[in-house]
Design brief:
7 strands; about 375 residues; seven-stranded mixed sheet; about 15% strand; Endonuclease III, domain 1; Nucleoside Triphosphate Pyrophosphohydrolase
Length: about 375
């Protein structure tokens, strides 16, 4: 239930004024101001999905340098693209990024869909991304809702609802849509999100610096930590034990495309992977699949988190027999391996081998 039902009270003007003075100088904002190309906005929004700004910044700049325009991305391949998004995780979004680029270039003749409704029809674009892109690039007054916005408005309005719940999203969407600036919706959405990121933080919010403090229900009732309510029924991470095999063959390294039904990194190239649940006979089982290699030597292990899994990974080094064949695989020169690995999981395994090799050389 909304406890603070005050009128607009210049809510939008307060957000716009704060954002004008405090907005961060991110590269996608500079590019938008310079070129007014929706492409730069769209790429940043896709990269920022479930990923921190800190992680995205260096990747974004390298990405735009390699793919400065939509046509450059549309002309690329999955293998080329993965070199520039390696380590960011949630890789399905980048499959959709490439699909959308090719679609807009070919089917739309490089003419961007300009409305929320039309953007929603593109691969990998949901409510938030469509709202963000349409408001920033095309000035459509469509409220963009992320976790930061949920927190700001839950506190401001006194919404006793759980973070991430459908009920909270609905209330926040309705409220923000009523507040949104018709003149500058893009700045309004960015300002509200940035306010949540910098000022209205989950813990220890900086209320004294907040432009909404005189009208905020949580601040006025000293209940900042109570809004919104915590997430409910959060899926617990599942423990997963895996084996990663770094396989040498004729002075090259083998990478294999993981199966579509793989628990992790489906359809992504990486080191051959088996799961503990397959039993202690992993090597024997692999041999039965015509994968003939010498007895693997364990060279290390590490912990890793990905999506809903807490992974314990063992890393093995081995070599293939001369006449072995492995489906969906490629052989690469050692120097080309790092740029061909998309997942940080595989990079960790590769770094273990690299460290072992350096230690051996040093000795």
């Amino acid at each position: 239930m909304i406890k603070n039902n005050k009128s607009k009270f210049n809510f939008e003007k307060s957000i716009l004024k704060w954002f004008e003075k405090n907005q961060q100088n991110y590269p996608w904002r500079s590019l938008w101001l310079t070129h007014k190309d929706p492409y730069h906005v769209w790429v940043s929004e896709i990269m920022l999905q479930q990923t921190t700004i800190k992680a995205v910044l260096p990747k974004y700049e390298k990405f735009i340098k390699r793919f400065p325009k939509l046509k450059n991305l549309a002309a690329s391949s999955e293998d080329e693209l993965k070199k520039y998004v390696s380590g960011l995780g949630y890789y399905r979004r980048f499959d959709n990024l490439l699909k959308t680029a090719k679609m807009i270039y070919s089917e739309y003749h490089q003419n961007w869909p300009k409305s929320y409704t039309s953007l929603m029809k593109l691969p990998g674009i949901g409510d938030y991304t469509a709202s963000a892109v349409s408001s920033i690039a095309f000035q459509e007054a469509k409220a963009a809702i992320d976790g930061n916005v949920e927190r700001v408005l839950a506190r401001f309005l006194g919404l006793n609802l759980n973070l991430g719940s459908k009920e909270l999203k609905k209330e926040v969407k309705t409220a923000s849509q009523s507040f949104i600036s018709e003149v500058n919706p893009g700045a309004y959405n960015q300002g509200l999100m940035e306010l949540g990121q910098i000022i209205c933080r989950p813990q220890n919010p900086l209320c004294k610096m907040c432009p909404l403090k005189k009208h905020c229900y949580a601040k006025l009732s000293s209940q900042q930590e109570n809004f919104p309510l915590p997430k409910q029924n959060v899926r617990k991470s599942e423990d997963l034990d895996i084996n990663l095999f770094i396989i040498k063959f004729n002075n090259k390294i083998l990478l294999q495309k993981r199966p579509q039904k793989s628990k992790i990194l489906a359809n992504k190239m990486g080191f051959l992977t088996t799961y503990k649940e397959e039993g202690k006979r992993s090597c024997e089982e692999l041999e039965s699949k015509l994968i003939k290699f010498n007895k693997p030597k364990k060279i290390g292990n590490f912990n890793h988190s990905i999506t809903h899994y807490k992974i314990r990974a063992n890393v093995f080094l081995t070599s293939l027999s001369p006449h072995a064949t492995i489906n969906n695989s490629v052989l690469l020169k050692t120097k080309d391996v790092p740029n061909s690995l998309i997942a940080s999981l595989d990079h960790k395994a590769w770094n273990i081998l690299k460290e072992k090799s350096e230690q051996k050389t040093y000795k």
